[in-house]
Design brief:
The chain has 104 residues and is α+β, with helices and mostly antiparallel strands. The chain has helices spanning 34-42, 66-72, 89-101; strands at residues 2-5, 8-12, 47-51, 55-56, 59-60. The strands form 2 sheets. The protein has a 3-stranded antiparallel β-sheet, covered by helices on one side. A two-stranded antiparallel ribbon has the order 4-5. It is globular and about 45 Å long. The termini are far apart. It binds adenosine-5'-diphosphate and magnesium ion.
Length: 104
C-alpha cells in the first residue's frame, strides 16, 4: 500500500498482515509514518491511498467511509481524548452499542 498527504508520498509500499488474536506493535522514529498509517487504516479524509488495497477480514475497505470501518470493528483510540461537555462515557457507550446492534 502507498499513501500520500497533499501529493507527498509518506507510505512507500507497505505489506502488513495481522491475524485474528495477534497483537502487533509498530516502532519507529518520529516522522516514520506510524500515525499516518493508523489514520489511513481508519479512512481519514486528509490522506489518500494511491496504490494497493486495505482489507479487513475478507472485505476490501480501501474506499469505505470511516463509520463503515468502525462498524466492522476498527477503532483508533485517542492519545489524549477530548472531553466533550454533556457527553458522558455511559451515553457514549450506549450510542456506540445502538449503532452496532440497532438495539436500544
Ligand atoms: N498534513 C501533513 N502534510 C505534510 N506532511 C505531513 C502531514 N502530516 C504528517 N506529515 C509528515 O509525514 C511523516 C510521517 O508523520 P507521522 O505519521 O506523524 O509520523 P510518526 O507517527 O511515525 O511519528 C512526517 O515526515 C510528517 O512530517
Ligand atoms: Mg505519531
Amino acid at each position: 500500500m502507498h499513501a500520500s498527504v497533499e501529493e507527498k508520498e509518506i507510505i512507500k509500499g507497505l505489506h502488513l498482515e495481522t491475524k485474528e488474536g495477534e497483537i502487533h506493535v509498530l516502532l519507529g522514529p518520529n516522522g516514520a509514518g506510524k500515525s499516518i498509517l493508523a489514520n489511513v487504516i481508519m479512512g481519514h479524509p486528509g490522506y489518500s491511498v494511491t496504490d494497493g488495497h486495505l482489507y479487513f477480514e475478507e472485505d476490501d475497505i480501501t474506499e469505505a467511509k470511516t463509520n463503515e470501518r468502525g462498524k466492522k470493528g476498527l477503532l483508533l483510540s485517542n492519545q489524549a481524548p477530548e472531553e466533550i461537555p454533556g457527553i458522558t462515557m455511559e451515553n457514549f457507550l450506549k450510542s456506540t452499542r445502538t449503532a452496532l446492534t440497532e438495539e436500544k
